[in-house]
């Protein structure tokens, strides 16, 4: 089992009242409330915490990016990836991920990731995401072509990594005259690609068709099981049987020496005023054309206040009860996590451990207990359940490199 | 005499276009807004009492099929030139409403001598000299159309409580706006250079309280079109033909009837 440490890198040092008064803490909430001195302090503290996570035994550091919001300070996931490549020695640098549709130049992205892979001496896991609706708006990228751009950018990155240049790319959304970057990934055939997601069935099926692990981001146990069923079926359709190495799961966990302190800090998971990525107009998260047309009617009803949020808005207590948030002493957390891995059987696990305004001291203590005590116990337990990660299972990086499927062209070559 | 409308489907460029038509006389092609259109409006009836009025749903909007390949209002302009050829309509006048005004301007710029007259009402298509064209991407489905009315009672008179079907239609219309006019948003950087050749007399009408397309864009149209008159409608927003149908119809009919 592969266990990663994750934080959204909250920019918690802002005037929360200003956000409430404005009515939004995303996209259009003014960056005049961003204090760069506090930003500098937090970036450096978060960096030290990643190093601490490696020191205490995490297998990987999971990184992401968001834009225009205090919810997440990382605006370019590759920035922190590049820094970690240099300052860490052992952990996998797991991008979950680069929002492909946001790039106007996928070749440059392939180049950056290849550089980070070489600098890190082959420790990159290159996840890709569609990026939320707000990310499209914040970057001026057309939401109506989001999925098309995701797939085409992926195909171009994959080709850039696997086929010697120069070649020319004349696609629908991308055209490149001379693809021939003088930077190629160290890992062959290319770095592992994992696809994180929340609810899009199309993405689950696409991931299964590529044989890329799908990382469910803090979905409910029931929803996670449905994702597995969808993935399993799509995998069988292309000729392989999915196992734990095809699944990952991200869960919010906070550990402290006492239950009381852990619970108190875990409430910070709700710090964005009850919303996941901050207070926002629903059309920002889901601009027209971004989402599957099958969800159109339900969405317009929800977005105009005629129906409840389909994702619900559960309280902290409810989320603790439903094992969407776990908090406690190491022993308590281990017990809940064992239940969770029994139920969801992931080969990859991300632990989102610190959020909001948890103090530096408590964040560091959480990381020590989490990476030093909880992760080893869960890995040991996972091994007894046969929960192998992609390296342990020697899983192919992509479907085309499968050796267990008759007639796979690339594998045969 | 009441106006009798006929709805038909015309196949153009491989897609099925929904086309409404009514009335007799010189042909007038009416091009609707970015938010789509109701099938019938008092303004349409008023025009059809005097002219042969053709009102297509833009490709991808309303009941017209979506061309996956379509990327720009100029593509829609070409589709309508094709439609008019198929209809055998000549010496047609164009009435472009908002986003439809941009399409009308593209049509006229591509065939400078082809159209009898050109009416632009709150037309998109030019970068306003001051301010920006309002971005519907960051406001809700109801707030955007609302912002196009000076008087909210006029919005209520047209849309009532707003049905869920209407919300869905606005979401589809919004998606089509993104597919065709995302960047730069709702204007062309080349169109201003191509308006000077247009031979048709033009009437540029603007609501004096248009919060969606700044009035400066209307003045820019009137300046760039060689034979244009600019006029404003008081206490009126962007969706002028819905908010002040009588005033817009009178201006349009007088202009189109003048020899």
Report on the architecture of this protein:
- The complex is a heterodimer of chains A (413) and B (259).
- By secondary structure, chain A is an alpha/beta fold.
- Chain A is built from 15 helices and eleven strands.
- Chain A has a single domain, classed as TIM Barrel (Alpha-Beta Barrel).
- Helices cover 42% and strands 15% of the residues of chain A.
- In chain A, α4 links the parallel β3 and β4.
- Helices cover 37% and strands 18% of the residues of chain B.
- Chain B contains ten helices and eight strands.
- The two termini of chain B are 25 Å apart.
- The chains are: A alpha/beta (413), B alpha/beta (259).
- At the A-B interface, α10 and α11 of A face α6 of B.
The count of domains of chain B is: 1
**Which whole number gives the mean pLDDT of chain B?**
97
CATH architecture label name of chain B: 3-Layer(aba) Sandwich
What is the H level of CATH, i.e. the homologous superfamily of chain B?
Alpha/Beta hydrolase fold, catalytic domain
Reading the helices and strands of chain B in chain order gives EEEHEHEHEHHHHEHEHH
The gyration radius over C-alpha positions of chain A equals: 21 Å
Spatial gap, N to C terminus of chain A? 31 Å
Using the coordinates above, name the CATH class of chain B.
Alpha Beta
Number of helices of chain A: 15
Strand order of the largest sheet of chain B: 1-2-4-3-5-6-7-8
Highest CATH level, the class of chain A = Alpha Beta
């Amino acid at each position: 089992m592969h266990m990663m440490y994750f934080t959204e890198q909250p920019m918690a040092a802002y005037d929360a009242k200003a956000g409430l008064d404005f009515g939004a803490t995303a996209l259009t909430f003014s960056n005049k409330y961003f204090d760069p001195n506090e930003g500098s302090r937090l970036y450096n503290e978060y960096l030290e915490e990643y190093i601490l996570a490696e020191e205490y035994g995490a297998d990987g550091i999971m990184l992401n990016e968001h834009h225009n919001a205090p919810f997440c300070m990382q605006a370019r996931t590759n920035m922190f990836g590049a820094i970690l490549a240099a300052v860490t020695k052992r952990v996998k640098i797991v991008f979950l991920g680069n929002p492909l549709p946001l790039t106007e130049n996928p070749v440059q992205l392939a180049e950056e990731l290849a550089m980070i892979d070489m600098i890190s001496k082959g420790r990159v896991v290159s996840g890709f995401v569609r990026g939320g609706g707000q990310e499209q708006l914040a970057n001026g990228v057309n939401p109506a072509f989001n999925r098309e751009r995701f797939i085409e950018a992926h195909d171009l990155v994959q080709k850039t990594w696997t086929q010697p240049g120069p070649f020319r790319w004349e696609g629908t959304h991308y055209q490149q005259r001379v693809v021939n970057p003088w930077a190629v990934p160290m890992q062959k055939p290319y770095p592992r690609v994992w696809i994180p997601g929340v609810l899009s069935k199309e993405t689950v099926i696409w991931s299964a068709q590529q044989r890329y692990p799908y990382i469910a981001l803090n979905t409910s146990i029931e929803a996670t099981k449905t994702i597995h069923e969808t993935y399993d079926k799509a995998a069988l359709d292309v000729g392989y049987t999915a196992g734990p190495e095809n699944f990952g799961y991200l869960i919010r966990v906070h550990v402290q020496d006492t239950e009381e302190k852990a619970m108190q800090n875990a409430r910070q998971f709700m710090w964005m005023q009850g919303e996941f990525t901050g207070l926002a107009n629903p059309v920002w998260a889901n601009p027209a054309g971004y989402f599957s047309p099958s969800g159109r009617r339900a969405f317009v009803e929800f977005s105009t206040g005629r129906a409840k949020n389909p994702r619900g808005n559960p309280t902290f207590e409810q989320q603790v009860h439903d094992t969407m948030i776990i908090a406690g002493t190491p022993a308590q957390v281990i017990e809940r996590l064992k239940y969770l891995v029994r139920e969801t059987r992931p080969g990859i696990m991300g632990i989102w451990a610190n959020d909001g305004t948890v103090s530096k001291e408590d964040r560091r203590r959480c990381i020590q207990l989490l990476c030093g005590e909880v992760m080893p116990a869960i890995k040991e337990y996972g091994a007894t359940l046969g929960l192998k990660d992609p390296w342990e299972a020697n899983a192919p990086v992509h479907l085309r490199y499968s050796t267990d499927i008759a007639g796979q062209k690339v594998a045969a070559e | 005499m009441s106006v009798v409308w006929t709805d038909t489907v015309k196949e153009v460029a491989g897609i099925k276009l929904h086309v409404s038509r009514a009335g007799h006389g010189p042909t007038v092609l009416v091009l609707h807004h970015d938010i789509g259109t109701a099938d019938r409006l008092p303004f349409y009836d008023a025009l059809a009492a005097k002219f042969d009025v053709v009102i297509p749903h833009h490709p991808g909007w309303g009941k017209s099929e979506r061309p996956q390949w379509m990327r720009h209002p100029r593509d829609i302009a070409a589709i309508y030139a094709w439609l008019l050829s198929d209809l055998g309509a000549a010496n047609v006048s164009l009435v472009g409403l908002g986003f439809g005004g941009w399409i009308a301007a593209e049509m006229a710029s591509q065939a400078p001598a082809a159209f009898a007259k050109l009416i632009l009402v709150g037309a998109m298509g030019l970068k306003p000299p001051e301010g920006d064209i309002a971005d519907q991407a960051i406001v809700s489905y109801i707030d955007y159309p609302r912002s196009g009315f000076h008087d909210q009672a006029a919005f209520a008179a047209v849309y009532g409580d707003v049905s869920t079907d209407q919300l869905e239609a606005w979401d589809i219309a919004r998606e089509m706006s993104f597919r065709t006019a995302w960047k730069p948003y709702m204007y062309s950087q080349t169109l201003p250079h191509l308006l000077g050749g247009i031979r048709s007399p033009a009437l540029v009408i603007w609501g004096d309280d248009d919060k969606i397309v700044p009035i400066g864009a209307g003045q820019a149209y009137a300046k760039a079109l060689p034979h244009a008159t600019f006029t404003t409608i008081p206490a009126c927003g962007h969706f002028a033909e819905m908010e002040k149908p009588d005033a817009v119809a009178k201006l349009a009919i007088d202009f189109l009837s003048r020899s």
